[in-house]
Design goal:
113 residues; 10 strands; 4-stranded antiparallel beta sheet; mainly beta
Length: 113
Amino acid sequence: QLQASGGGLVQAGGSLRLSCAASGFTSSYGIGWFRQVPGGLREGVLCVSSAGVTTTYVDSVKGRFTISRDKKDNTKESVDLQMNSLQPEDTAVYYCHDDANYWGQGTQVTVSS
């Protein structure tokens, strides 16, 4: 099970931290963050593998967004998306997803100019 939180409204240049609380046996899966704008396709943003290797899928977030993974115990972990220097084009609903194809509920991020 994946539970996303941390979205909100922020001015351009600001920061937000999204958190994905993963429960169950997710430690062997990669977990990533996706985003979707109205009428658009859901796109991958960053992901982190079970070994801690990170991959960035969107060039525009390089140097601004980072992903981290924190294992709490054998059945709980958190995958956070730190978003800095936010821009209006980052406005979207953000989702976390794991390799078992589970999706967390979306969390809205709105960046005002």
